[in-house]
Amino acid sequence: MSTVTVDPSTVLPDEGPIEHRIVEKRSVKTATILAVATALLALLLVASPRQGKTNFQITLGNEFFSIGEGGVVAVPAVPFAWICVAIMAVLTVVAFVLSYRYSKFPGWASAVFGLLAVAAFLSWAGAGAQGRLNVVGLIGNAILVAIPLVFGALGGVIGERAGVVNIAIEAQLLMAAFTGAVVGSLTANAWVGLLAAILAGAGVAAILGVFAINYRVEQVIVGVVLNVLIIGVTTFLFSAWLQTDMQRLNSTLEHRFPDIAIPLLSRIPIIGPALFNRPVIVYIMYVAVAAVWFALYRTRWGLRTRAVGEHPKAADTVGIKVNATRWLAVLIAGAIVGIGGASYTLVSNPSFNREMTAGFGYIALAAVIFGNWDPIRASLAGLLFGFAINLQSVLSVIGSPVPSQFMLMLPYVVTLLAVAGLVGKSRAPAADGVAYTVEGH
Q1: Would you say the C-alpha torsion 171, 174, 177, 179 has a positive or negative sign?
Q2: What does the pLDDT look like over 216-260, one tens digit per residue?
Q3: What's 57's DSSP letter?
Q4: Using the 8-state DSSP alphabet, how is residue 69 labeled?
Q5: Phi and psi dihedrals of 52, rounded to 5?
Q6: Which DSSP symbol is given to 215?
Q7: Which end of the chain is more exposed for a tag (fewer CB within 10 A), N or C?
Q8: Contact predicate 362/151, CB 8 Å
Q9: Where do the structural domains in the chain lie, given as residue ranges?
Q10: CB within 8 Å of 282: residues ≥ 6 apart
């Protein structure tokens, strides 16, 4: 063993104080996206000019005051659209200036930009149409469409924050819809049907947990298999059992959740009837978004859940039971998704039908990715996708030249852009989809 002797008289050169430098990175992603959206909308107005006015139904008559004549505001379609595009162009310039100054484009400005883009597009699409473009109905129906998407996204966020990929959201929604319809019909009680749907969602989640957590099977494969399995099971039971006595086993027409108007709030013009005169599941959705956010970021359970999803080995080292924590998260996620599944047969439809979820579980999963695994952002993404899906039916009613299939593919296009990093950073939890093996087992 050798030693090195340092002469005490040796004087090391004085390198001076260490300078800490902060390197700022200029990002023009947001400004570029705004510029592309503005350019595409302007190109649409130039390439396909339309004549006439667009009639917007703003109020329904029960609000505190009415806007327009009989609640209808008629605007010259193309000029109004160009005004919106001009304001969008100004916001785009502001976004570039802020990015040059290393400042962030504010969220409220992005929301204003989005509203202007939607207003311009709807004004162009409804030009010369005989019918009215019901803004209240557009928002309200988008909320109803988005119920399973939001609950599915919340369940997806909880599961993946704990490190379990929940591809089986589709299966949980479908099984919950089936169970809610049957139990709600047999008991003639929507609340009992809702409880049964919650248990059904948690039951499918338990199957996912057994294979993904206990047996450490590839989680994506388990999820896909569960989706196919539940489609087969519900289709078989629908044909072999429910159709034998539809009135008794599969009819919730008289037992669905009715609309409940919240005093004062429901009379606010435009947003009042759309947001605050809804079935009780919608209000549960509002509470669930806030509750999941609070639980994930402000409670010990949330801290442990995020820990086992990011670094399970470190969590295990400090005494957190990784697999038990994942199990609890998966079951809670399944129960939440079950509420969304119940909305199919206890809110939107009077009975269950084959494959009625129509791939919404996958769209909810897309909302999780687009929302960057955050409950509030994922819920907003679910609302955005619900609005896009509902918009295609509205455009077909007013005779818009835009193909309805374009609106149906929009959520997936946006998700691809998000995954590619064009709509901001998208990073899954570090241990998402990685099974954990306890040492010694």
Answers
A1: negative
A2: 999 999 999 999 999 999 999 999 999 999 999 999 988 899 999
A3: E
A4: B
A5: 100, -175
A6: S
A7: N
A8: no
A9: 29-131, 140-415
A10: 143, 144, 147, 275
CA distances from 342 to 59, 227, 239, 370 (A): 30, 17, 20, 24
Strands 133-134 and 53-57 come out as parallel
Task: Say if strands 133-134 and 259-261 run parallel, antiparallel, or are unpaired.
Answer: unpaired
Rounded CA separation 2/13 (Å): 26
Is residue 65 classed exposed, middle or buried when 0-12, 13-18 and 19+ CB atoms within 10 A define those classes?
Answer: exposed
CATH topology of domain 140-415: ABC transporter involved in vitamin B12 uptake, BtuC (1.10.3470)
Q: Which of 393, 272, 282 is nearest to 348 (CA)?
A: 282
CA distance 405 to 321: 47
Contact status, residue 121 vs residue 37, Cβ threshold 8 Å: no
What is the rounded distance in angstroms from the CA atom of residue 62 to the CA atom of residue 248? 37
Kindly report, residue by residue over 311-321, the tens digit of the pLDDT. 999 999 999 99
DSSP character at residue 250: S
Q: Which long-range contacts (CB under 8 A, 24 or more apart) does 433-437 make?
A: 433/163, 433/164, 433/165, 433/219, 433/220, 434/163, 434/312, 435/212, 435/213, 435/216, 435/219, 436/163, 436/308, 436/312, 436/313, 436/316, 436/322, 436/323, 436/326, 437/216
**Strand pairing partners for 261?**
277
Q: Give the span between the Cα atoms of 225 and 327, in whole angstroms.
A: 19
Tens of pLDDT along 401-427? 777 677 677 767 766 765 665 555 668
**pTM (2 decimals)?**
0.89
What values do phi and psi take at 179, rounded to 5? Answer: -65, -40
Residues 54 and 397: their CA atoms lie apart, in Å, by 14
State the average pLDDT for the chain: 88
How would you label 323-335 residue by residue, b for 16+ Cβ within 10 Å and e otherwise?
Answer: bebbbbbbbbbbb
Distance, in Å, from the CA atom of 309 to the CA atom of 293, rounded to the nearest integer, reads 16
**Which residue from 411, 389, 360, 390 is spatially nearest to 149, judged by alpha carbons?**
360
Residue 268 tokens read as 């606010």
C-alpha 346/C-alpha 173 separation (Å) is 13
